[in-house]
Amino acid sequence: MEPTDLIWMNGDFVPWEDAKVHVLTHGLHYGTGVFEGVRCYDTDLNPTHPPAVFRNLDHIERLLRSAELYYMPVPYTAQELRAATLELVARNGLSSCYIRPIVFRGSGSMGLNPLDSPVDVTIACWEWGTYLGEEGMRNGVRAKVSSWERIGPRSLIPHAKASGQYLNSVLAKIEATKAGYEEAILLDEHGHVCEGTGENIYVVREGEIATPGQHNSILDGITRRSVIQIAQDLGYTVVERNVARAEMYLADEVFLSGTAAELVPVREIDDHAIGTGRPGEITRVLQAAFDDAIHGRTERYREWLDVVSAPALETPAGEAPEAVPAQSRSAASG
Ligand code: PMP
Hints:
This protein is of the alpha+beta class and 334 residues long. 25% of the residues lie in helices and 26% in strands.
């Protein structure tokens, strides 16, 4: 990870190396945090080709919903977090990056009742290339169905993007990569397909796109919503329903979607070639349409782009900037 100049921390922009927390941070011990993964892209928008954050407010709203589900009052409004994100990207002088906001229980009290621990909020960003690799993006990844069951609604909240929940994804990812695959696919307690460790999943058969629905312990992906809309706008049928394990093996095409991974073809699952073993036609069409959308080449999806308009502040090379109060901060104490 290549450090950037600044990280937004509880309302202030602090130098990257100073954005630290105490070892007794509640979230570190018990996973009491909620977070987002967001991407900012360089765009073809006129006249200055500004960078733009993809579906910024949708991510922030999901973050606030995740926080609410874990009883964490967030001391900032969605618009304050949105402005902080835009200013952070601008001040770091980045044209395309990954953005990681996190809301977590800080230090001050220990024990499983987190309600007396402070709620801290930070936003970091850095340049991050393709998550599952350039080769995977072009030719497809190899995936393995995990022996780990996806977390279910009787023990956790699959719809929340909460730190502790990711131990489930971490175990599945380690298992898959140790076995020589790029990604794991998790099933629920009924054997229905849920998703990858950090991506939603789609199976295509005879021109129809099927994807697990809201009751299948998925995270309601923002890329998923975008993909479904793009696919429908292009005239494809998209069905949200239970997907059986064997349907993946028998599909003409399988692909994954997520903010970090973007749209990635799956070429093999459990050593079965998917379709021809090459990325399929519909996957290719959707990949290209999604790429156009994130780079501002499609007017119809222009509303998904939150343009970074503030000018990047100049910092002399090698000199870390001072901690500066956020220009966007207001009523941060509430
Ligand atoms: N499922 C899980 C478990 C994830 O972590 C992610 C990544 N946030 C997704 C699906 C895809 O969600 P999104 O498209 O909003 O990034």
